[in-house]
Amino acid sequence: MALSLVANLLTSLQPLVEKEVGLLLGVDEEMTKLSSTLSTIEAVLEDAERNHPEDRAVQDWLRKLKDAAYEVDDILDECSTEILRWESKGQSSGSLKKVGTSLLYPFENVKFRHRIGHMMKEISGKLAAIADERDKFHFRNMVVENRDEFTKSQVLRNLTLLKLLRIDRFTKLKSLPNGLAHLKALKSLSINFCDKLKSLPEEGLRGLESLQRLEIWYCKEFSSLSEGLQHLVCLESLEIEGCPKQVALPEGVKHLKSLQSLTMIGDSDVLVALPETLQHVPALQSLSIASYPKLTSLPDWLGNLTTLQTLTIFGCPKISSLPASIQRLTKLRSLSITDCGPELARRCEKGKGEDWHKIAHIPQVEVNAPAKPK
Questions:
Q1: Rounded mean pLDDT of 353-370?
Q2: pTM of the shown model
């Protein structure tokens, strides 16, 4: 409940900030602080409400937050009412002025301005104290969904204990906020359905030395992990799915000495060969490649991935044979190639196919083509 309350307050605050109401009331700084504080609190509310239902201290903190949120709601209602009154008066008397894209309202009621200003400063201080208390609970999870103004805030600077961050459905996000670099304890980062995100800039990844898992799903314009990837020295798992323009890996991937699992599911007609930089990942144990219909072959350097234990390939029907170097993968325990072409399935037939001797040493082998329609 607290999460929805705070989210609604941030939604109500946005138009007031855009119309520079805080400036007119003399509480511009307090209104900006209020928005930032609410964003900071919102960042940990999902963890607080979902994972600490029996923790009395957390529940007391949530009750204080809800009480303060209702106070903020009352203040914003008064501001909105006053704005409507002056908009109506301005439109009828011609006193409403436009400057650029902002509307300047002639707040003539000094008593109102003084009272609202005092209330705003008081509640801003109260919420700041509540926000400061959050650190003692060590909240760790954060989900941000479709809130584009989040990228402009300083909220990430305050989340030094955050362990998991998921950013969903940002319609205008083109790059990650630089504040991401302040998340020194972050272990898992997931970015989903951000249609305009094109890359992960180096500055955005710098400082994420603790990150172990990175997922990028269904970002249609995403095309570059950037050399900033080399800063993720603890990264163990990298998943890229539904990003059809992502067809290469940066040179910095060779510095990822902890990377054990890589998944690339492209749904893409662009990729025709596996990225050559992939051969330099030093400790890779699991590799999954899927939905690249124009991928025509597996490279000979595949045999350089000597630590590989699991290899999965799905939906790449133009691969017609396996490289001889696959015999060098002596640690490989599982090979699964499904929805491949019929020629590859024939060549890998146990005991008969021309390529069977290349994979006979692998304990678990599955190679099949799609069933022919009846």
A1: 92
A2: 0.64
